[in-house]
């Protein structure tokens, strides 16, 4: 069975916490489960989009990694007729030549904001993974009228004070000239599956500018923007329980849990695609 129809999630609704499948969650939103696809099957690159062009999807990656972390989700979104915009943040992956401690959170916000404005996108579904949650929060603050929905995938979310970087992070930045090395978890080759994609992901890893984590970033989300938080429950999930707890207990959020690692893009690409198109 496809995880699209079998994975159990927790959905926050006004009447309380209910255990639902992703398909049930979609029906709750007057949608239907569209695809029954093996998790790592690659979708064709030439599919005519069937989604409403006025509701584009923009995907924002997190720290250290590049845009190819979204590849499995992009493939699944294409089977729904959605061709998403995938951002490469300044200093990441193919833009590693621009990397350095001078890069700010505002630079990354500008990357996403510029894409949306230059393509004249409106009613955007904006999706951020991990650190990408900080970025999309800033984008919403700058161009709220262009955003209709946000999905925070195991990410920083503007719902609780994060307390700032830890002393360990501060020391790492001092020791590495204002940059943070990729430490704390490893990319799992077995999870990624495709050897070429795995190598590309490894090659794309760069140190992350520490200054992006010290800038003020929390903004209240406008009431017209629908918001969803997806929490990873795997053993190597990021330490974001404080964000998850706040969203789980706030009726203005849709809250979903997936039993997988922090990189849910590889363990649950179909579920994430279903959630993204299920607004």
Sum up the overall morphology in one term: globular
Tally of extended strands? 10
What level of helicity do the residues show?
Answer: 25-40%
Query: Helix count, per DSSP?
Result: 11
- Taking pLDDT < 50 over at least 5 consecutive residues as the criterion, the unreliable ranges are 1-54
What composes the largest sheet? 6 strands, parallel
The secondary-structure element order is HEEHEHEHEHEHEHHEEHEHH
**Could you give the distance between the termini?**
23 Å
Cα gyration radius (Å): 18 Å
Strand order of the largest sheet: 4-3-5-6-9-10
The secondary structure category is alpha/beta
**Mean pLDDT value:** 83
The fraction of residues assigned to DSSP E strands is: 15-25%
Main traits of this protein?
6-stranded parallel β-sheet, alpha/beta, 11 helices, two-stranded antiparallel ribbon, 279 residues, 17% strand
Short description:
By secondary structure, the protein is an alpha/beta fold.
């Amino acid at each position: 069975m496809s995880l699209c129809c079998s994975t159990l999630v927790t959905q926050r609704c006004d009447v309380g916490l209910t255990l639902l499948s992703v398909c049930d969650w979609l029906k709750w939103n007057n949608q239907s489960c569209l695809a029954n696809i093996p998790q790592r099957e690659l979708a064709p690159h030439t599919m005519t989009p069937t989604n409403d062009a006025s509701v584009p999807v923009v995907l924002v990656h997190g720290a250290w990694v590049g845009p190819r972390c979204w590849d499995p989700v992009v493939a699944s979104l294409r089977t729904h007729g959605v061709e998403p915009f995938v951002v490469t943040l300044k200093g990441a992956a193919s833009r590693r030549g621009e990397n350095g401690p001078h890069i700010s959170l505002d630079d990354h916000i500008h990357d996403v904001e510029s894409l949306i404005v230059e393509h004249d996108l409106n009613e955007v579904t904006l999706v951020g993974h991990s650190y990408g949650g900080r970025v999309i929060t800033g984008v919403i603050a700058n161009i709220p009228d262009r955003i209709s929905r946000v999905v925070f995938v195991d990410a920083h979310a503007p719902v609780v004070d994060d307390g700032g970087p830890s002393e360990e992070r501060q020391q790492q930045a001092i020791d590495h000239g204002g940059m943070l090395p990729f430490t704390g978890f490893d990319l799992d080759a077995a999870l990624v599956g495709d050897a070429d994609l795995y190598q590309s992901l490894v090659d794309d890893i760069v140190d992350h500018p520490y200054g992006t984590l010290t800038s003020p970033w929390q903004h209240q989300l406008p009431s017209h923007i629908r918001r969803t938080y997806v929490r990873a429950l795997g053993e190597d999930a990021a330490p974001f329980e404080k964000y998850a707890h706040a969203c789980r207990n706030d009726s203005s959020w849709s809250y979903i849990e997936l039993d997988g690692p922090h990189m849910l893009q590889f363990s649950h690409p179909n579920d994430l695609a279903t959630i993204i198109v299920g607004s």
